[in-house]
Amino acid sequence: MSQSIEQDVRVLMDREEIKELTARYCWHVMRGEGAKIVDLFTDDASFDNSANAGSIANGRAELLNFYEGIRPLQAIPFIHNHIIAVNGDEASGTCAIEGRFTRKEESLTGAGYYEDKYRRVHGKWRFAARKLFLHHMVPLKDGWASAHRVKTAP
């Protein structure tokens, strides 16, 4: 090992705190709690949905507007498969998302991943940037095979 035991433990604790940050994000999204979602971000954070024909929200006011604006879409997101690199008070990572959604009385299913940047602010990990990449978001009755955009090995 190139670090001390204390440094290794700190990195492990940081990774766990970041995983809990993403879990809290899902919880607040599911409950439609826009202000609580935004509290998980740094003041200068961004959310980038441009890879899915969406927009980019920069800063707390735009983030709040974005998260309050998605409420017609009811979401139950599930985050897993974290890969996190910690470097002091900065970190980066990816995590997978699967979700069950309801929009206009229609059931949807979706899957994709986030590319994240994290920053420790006043001793707590926050999102500095999130970028969402969806593999699919389709009506449950249609399935996702034809909408799947990720190339798979033969």
What does this structure look like?
- The protein has 154 residues and is an alpha+beta fold.
- The chain has one domain: Roll (Nuclear Transport Factor 2, Chain: A).
- The protein has helices at 5-30, 34-38, 59-69; strands at residues 41-48, 56-58, 74-87, 90-103, 106-121, 124-139.
- A six-stranded mixed sheet has the order 2-1-6-5-4-3.
Break the fold down into its secondary structure elements and pairings.
Layout: H1 5-30, H2 34-38, E1 41-48, E2 56-58, H3 59-69, E3 74-87, E4 90-103, E5 106-121, E6 124-139
Parallel strand pairs: 1-6
Antiparallel strand pairs: 1-2, 3-4, 4-5, 5-6
Short descriptors:
154 residues; alpha+beta; Nuclear Transport Factor 2, Chain: A; 6-stranded mixed β-sheet; globular
